[in-house]
């Protein structure tokens, strides 16, 4: 880590690769001889068109997005998609949802405004420690789509295999694991992710949508911004897109491509998470929260034996300049978010502190 930078375990907005920040800094005042920063540029300019085109090209290469999928860079966060998805794709007014935590609950609540939402499985009974068994799921044949959230940022759970939904398209919120591992896009009708967890700054939401879904008209007329088709027809430029955020995402895509792509990222992320989980599993003091069968590699949730000790742990973390280790306000406890840009050294340093704290308190 350079200079005064610290290990930031925030769930989002989160750490970005230093190289990317340095490049953005170097290009801040004069982007490639344009005499202005990317922030100051017209989104209709040739220079900016080059930036967004290259970002899409690199993202397609990185993931291996098939030709029949469209890519969008929009605003509104993941939260706006909770409503836009049913508005655009509940053609018959019915969908199946799997409830795995706070983010799916919010998506379910919004979808219910527009149609018949069948919650076909829920982790609520076990406190969202576990992803429901995907093999035993029964889907409603008349559903327009099946909706899941891949990585549950707040509880620290992740699907290890996806439900097989047959002809019903599978829609997935990948906000907190997007680009942390290879993605088999063909399995999905729609994938989306807010950028600020693992990909870039807040303000950009990336969508990957299968084109046959876009070919069908929605059930009701939609205001312009709500209509994905309009955004696709206009190459994410129907209105002003989050220009600077897209540029940073583009730099992150290049950083990922240069560093071995998503396979290499998966390996590095598995390695980092293992260091932390191995310690938590053998600790007699700290308790990991998520069930072993479905642990997230991005958000590691755990706790000490009491709320007082959790608070003391957070206070003590300050002297090592670790930040944002507090669990989500809804769950309490502790959480270390270790996205792509968190170096292995950061995780090792955290484990050193965990050991020291355990020794001092057991
Ligand atoms: C953070 C998060 C959201 C909400 O994102 P916003 O950009 O704040 O709307 C939704 N889903 C998941 C999985 C998240 O991690």
**CATH-level-4 superfamily name of the largest domain:** Type I PLP-dependent aspartate aminotransferase-like (Major domain)
pLDDT averaged over residues: 97
The run of helices and strands is EHHEHEHEEEEEEEHHHHEEHEEH
- pLDDT under 50 segments (min length 5)? none
CATH topology of the largest domain: Aspartate Aminotransferase, domain 2
Specify the biggest β-sheet: 7 strands, mixed
Global morphology: globular
Protein described:
The protein has 2 domains: 21-258, 3-Layer(aba) Sandwich (Aspartate Aminotransferase, domain 2), CATH 3.40.640.10; 261-360, Aspartate Aminotransferase, domain 1. It is an alpha/beta fold and 362 residues long. A hairpin with a 4-residue loop joins strand 6 (151-152) and strand 7. The mean pLDDT is 97. The protein has 10 helices and 14 strands. Helices cover 35% and strands 16% of the residues. The strands form 4 sheets. It has a 7-stranded mixed beta sheet. Strands 11-12-14 form a 3-stranded antiparallel beta sheet. A two-stranded parallel ribbon has the order 1-13. It binds pyridoxal-5'-phosphate.
